[in-house]
Amino acid sequence: QVQLLESGGGLVQAGGSLRLSCAVSGFTLDYYYAIGWFRQAPGKEREGVSCISSSDGSTYYADSVKGRFTISRDNAKNTVYLQMNSLKPEDTAVYYCNYRSTTKDYWGKGTLVTVSS
Q1: How confident is the model over 83-99, as pLDDT tens digits?
Q2: Which residues contact 3 (CB under 8 A, 6 or more apart)?
């Protein structure tokens, strides 16, 4: 059974930090894939936050999180992380893990991040 299990969300004050985790299981990872995070704030469309490539480890960050968020992965654990620092109220959203290859597009159920001002 395909699972992308997110954890680490919660309530934090502005300026604080959280680390999200996404543990992948239930399928064989492709050689080439991207794994990362999207978020959806109330009343807004889902947007890409960050992702990392399997081939060379290259990363992408949305302009709104550059310099504050860091994506990383532990291949042995099939887990990807999103370290979020200097959080702002506008970072409040449900964060979704996404695995994407030429043949697969899998999503987690999301974890809620709430940043209070």
Answers
A1: 999 999 999 999 999 99
A2: 23, 24, 25, 26, 108
